[in-house]
Amino acid sequence: MSGGVEMTAGTTSADTSPEAVMATMTRAARTAAAVLAQAPTAAKAAAIRAAAAAIRRQAEAILAANAADMAAADGLTPALKDRLLLTPARVEAMAAGLAAIAALPDPVGAVIAAWTTPNGLAFERVRVPLGVVGIVYESRPNVTADAGALAVMAGNAVILRGGSEAAASNAAIHACLVEGLAAAGLPTDAVQRVTCRDRAMVTAMLTAAGGIDVLIPRGGKGLVAHVLEHARVPVLAHLDGNNHVYVDAAADPAMAQAVVLDAKMRRTGVCGAMETLLVDRAYPAKAALLTALLDAGCEVRADAALLPLDLRLVPAQPLDWDTEYLDAVCAAAEVDGVAGAISHIAGHGSHHTDAVVTADLLVAERFIAEVDSAIVLHNASTQFADGGEFGFGGEIGIATGRLHARGPVALEGLTTYKNVVRGTGQVRG
Questions:
Q1: At the N or C end, where does the chain have fewer CB atoms within 10 A?
Q2: Within this chain, do residues 285 and 197 fall inside the same structural domain, yes or no?
Q3: How many CA atoms lie within 13 A of 132 on its CB side?
């Protein structure tokens, strides 16, 4: 160990400043990335399967480490504690997610497109790894496993900087990833973890141009905003998940209630949770929908049109329409049909995840076509905004921008492409 980071044996540095430590890590990562970029699919999959086996074998140690993190988490909200908490079921889900990633098709080397021009030149667009990926994240220890496994399977090296609140959990999980890499004969520097809790290490990552090829922040709005403001390397991120469920007049009431309750209350601290409920003025069961949320323990901040429907409703304030609560709180507004819902989302949404509940297919298709979000759902909970649910095995995060990747970032999102041109001696002359 040197400078507060875990590195392989033999790496030393006299300068332990954050910038010097990060330079050492990125050099090692660059070397590892070159090996991974050429590694056969079988070797990468074997490393991830071995890591999954190590997680299962070390489940008690991982849970004990998490218990230590939880014991020190007095300042966190209940929702954030839920994000931090590991249970036997969550550890098993983590291992199963890695096994699923190992079974996915390898994107590296895949030909995206191929064509031949009249002069006989043969063109191919071929997937290649991004190189060195930096991940800055908070609370959720499963990100350590998902990010490490996805990066390796896509042929990248990764540098992980988790939050101090999950330090013990992340260390235990990272050790399993390193064990998997070693078992498969791949460089252990392919997955490195920053152990220094000094925030200057985050700054060193943000400014590691030439060392880190892309940075992915995953956490609260404050963390992501800081990264977006100060990064000197490309960033793949979402700022917040201000997600909506629109219940149309043609929605089945039982379905609407089930979708809304799950979207908000299944796990309130995840980025796919519903934060604003939009209800069509003509929907006949508005009161029952709101009452179900209130009875489930959710505080509902309603607009003037909905406020009289239940005495427990709280008057909404202007900021409520733009707030990612990550808690058992949501805003609720009455809108004038699908056009009103689309307008509200355009004015207040974060381009993350939005859903429509309706039996009217024309309404559904209009919502899908006009709502500009990375994930749009029809008759399904926003909590499906998750790479595992998409069949990706896991995710590094949800990207809400327009460039490179959108939605759950998994294997394909961790690749770029090169253009390969094969000729027979052609010259332009």
A1: C
A2: no
A3: 24
Q: What is the DSSP string of 290-306?
A: HHHHHHTT-EEEE-TTT
Establish if 157 belongs to a structural domain.
Answer: yes
Instruction: Answer yes or no: is 23 within a domain.
Output: yes
Query: Bridge-partner residues for 353, per DSSP?
Result: 375
d(CA 248, CA 242): 19
| pLDDT of res. 75 | 85
Q: What is the number of domains present in the chain?
A: 2
Residue 416: half-sphere exposure toward Cβ, Cα within 13 Å: 12
Dihedral Cα 149, 151, 152, 153, nearest 10 deg: 80
Q: Which amino acid is at 115?
A: W
Pair (106, 219) in one structural domain: yes
Check whether residue 209 and residue 328 sit in a common domain. no
386 Cβ partners below 8 Å, 6+ apart?
Answer: 270, 272, 395, 408
CA distance 7 to 194: 9
- Indicate the DSSP class of residue 105: P
Q: CA 155, 156, 157 angle in degrees (round to 5)?
A: 135
pLDDT of residue 9: 38
Residue 8 lies in a domain: no
> Do 28 and 91 belong together in one domain?
yes
Are 334 and 306 contacting, i.e. CB atoms less than 8 angstroms apart?
yes
Same domain? For 284 and 223 the reply is no
- Which residues does residue 217 pair with via DSSP β-bridges, in sequence order? 136
Residue 359 is part of which domain span?
243-384
CB atoms within 10 A of CB 220: 17
DSSP letter at 244 equals: E
Q: Which two tokens stand for residue 387?
A: 């790479």
Q: pTM of the entire structure?
A: 0.87
End-to-end CA gap in the chain:
58
**259 and 405 both lie in a single domain:** no
Q: Per DSSP, what are the bridge partners of residue 243?
A: 274
- Give the position of tokens 């309750």: 261
CATH number of the domain residue 214 falls in: 3.40.605.10
What is the predicted pLDDT for the residue at 14?
Answer: 67
Distance CA 313, CA 270 (A): 24
**Within the chain, which residues score under 70 in pLDDT?**
1-14
Partner residues linked to 314 by β-bridges:
301
Coil/strand/helix, residue 275: strand
Quote the Cα angle for 100-102-104, to 5°.
75
Say if residues 398 and 353 touch (Cβ distance below 8 Å): yes
Q: Is residue 227 part of a domain?
A: yes
Q: Are residues 192 and 71 in the same domain?
A: yes
Do residues 302 and 249 both lie within one domain? yes
